[in-house]
Design brief:
Elements lengths: L2 E7 L2 H11 L11 H10 L8 E10 H8 L5 E5 L4 H4 L11 E9 H11 L6 H17 L1 H5 L4 H5 L14 H11 L2
Antiparallel strand pairs: 1-2, 2-4, 3-4
Length: 183
């Protein structure tokens, strides 16, 4: 699953200024530190929603695209059509693994929320792979945000699934929780 592009809009200065507004302060001039960024991301205070990302998967299987379309808060989806009148291909004969282009626009809070669901071992391997590709691209420009993109068990401190994959309680899990919480 190839990422065609990933772009960021908004800046940490925008996030910091919005945070200052919430505590009745004027805009600042000092750039936020890495520690401050991670702290506000972990707190999920509303100003983090000023940091947004736009990306496109070029060849996402249709059924994997459906997994992502289920996310609807803080994200918009633009998926290439499979309508017969637009493509000239009989939709009823299209396979569920037919490749689609799927473009998204999401804020930082939505990116973290989607990570909790789609990085979980209970998600399909194909869906995890597609989401890991997005997080990997985000890590190149916003490492603090990528550090906050963790599966639900790491976020909550326990597995809320009906059937756990067994990751909780392992040394790898403990290490992941420690890394996530480190500011």
């Amino acid at each position: 699953m190839k990422i065609g592009f990933l772009k960021k809009t908004g800046s940490w200065r925008d996030v910091a200024d919005a945070a200052r507004t919430t505590i009745r302060l004027d805009a600042g001039v000092k750039e936020p530190s890495s520690k401050w960024k991670k702290t506000i991301l972990l707190a999920e205070h509303s100003p983090v929603r000023k940091l947004c990302f736009n990306w496109k998967w070029l060849d996402l299987p249709y059924w994997v695209s459906v997994h992502f379309v289920r996310h609807k808060f803080g994200i918009e989806h633009f998926v290439s059509t499979q309508r017969s009148d637009r493509t000239g291909i009989d939709r009823d004969s299209s396979r569920q693994d037919a490749a689609v282009m799927h473009e998204c626009f999401a804020n930082a809070q939505a990116v973290m929320f989607i990570s909790r669901r789609r990085l979980c071992s209970q998600a399909s391997p194909e869906t995890r792979e597609a989401w890991k590709a997005v997080v990997s691209e985000i890590a190149k420009i916003e490492p603090e945000l990528a550090e906050c993109c963790v599966p639900e068990c790491v976020y909550r401190g326990f597995c809320p699934e009906f059937r756990s994959c067994g990751f909780c309680g392992t040394p790898a899990y403990e290490k992941a929780v420690e890394k996530y919480r480190k500011v």
